[in-house]
Hints:
Elements: H1 3-30, H2 36-59, H3 71-74
Helix pairs in contact: 1-2
Amino acid sequence: MSYQTQTATSTAVIFFEYFITLDREINLFWKWKPSLPVVLFMANRYLILISSALALATEFNSVTWTDRVSVHQLFSFGN
């Protein structure tokens, strides 16, 4: 499995988990006044989300829209 595939897959899982738990996060954490546990939770959750998005963006940055790259070349699994 290529590094691009691993990056895309892990980012998709992180975003999926974020969206399916967002309602619980809003109910449990957004209504509380800021405290150390709340700040640590938010920092952990959103830094991971941001770093995953940046990793995905930088991984696929080498391919521009003007390059003629086939889908097979983008998603080749080390073959």
